[in-house]
Design brief:
Layout: H1 6-13, E1 28-36, E2 47-59, E3 62-72, E4 78-88, E5 93-100, E6 136-145, E7 148-158, E8 181-193, E9 196-201
Antiparallel strand pairs: 1-2, 2-3, 3-4, 4-5, 5-6, 6-7, 7-8, 8-9
Amino acid sequence: MPELNAFGNYFRMHGYKLPLPKHPTTVFAIRYQMGYSQDPAAGTRRWTPGGIVLGNADLGNISAFMHYSLGAGGGPAALYLGFLTDYNAHTKSEYRLGLFELPLAQSPGERLDDLQGYGYYNAHVGLNDLPLASPRWGLWDQRTIGNLVANLTVDFSEFKGAAYGGKPVDTGEVTFNGAPEVGLWLDQGILSKPNSEIDAGG
């Protein structure tokens, strides 16, 4: 984490499936973590618990994935990611429906070394409160054409909260998308050799 290697990219881009015989497997996994502060601020805890429940199941040709946060720092639990995925081998296309992260270079939700956002992930779209790092509710179509990977996203709403669980502080203001957000993401492989790869994306 937070960047996939070649094996991880193959797995994701083929609808979270591998060309291997099927065997019974664990459907859910729990990750529990405990944070420690040597000098906690007044009114805060020295030990801060947190954790997530990960789930994945195959429903015929469709893969269902869930990332449910158990909350951190006393925040409530919340669904962070949850989507259905289908892969079409003939067209080399992956389709995703639900709550997903945008196809950024890295996964903002898996940055475990720092809770602060990285670079342009905190950039907002237009003049709203929608940073690129926030998961979206919508549709995703990814197609591979030679060394080009094209992602088209259309979303109608976004996740509001923290990657580690919890709802945002209630300010008395509620915002929502005035229109669907459309994104086009291109990643072109320029050079690919053993143990080296150069990509250009936008």
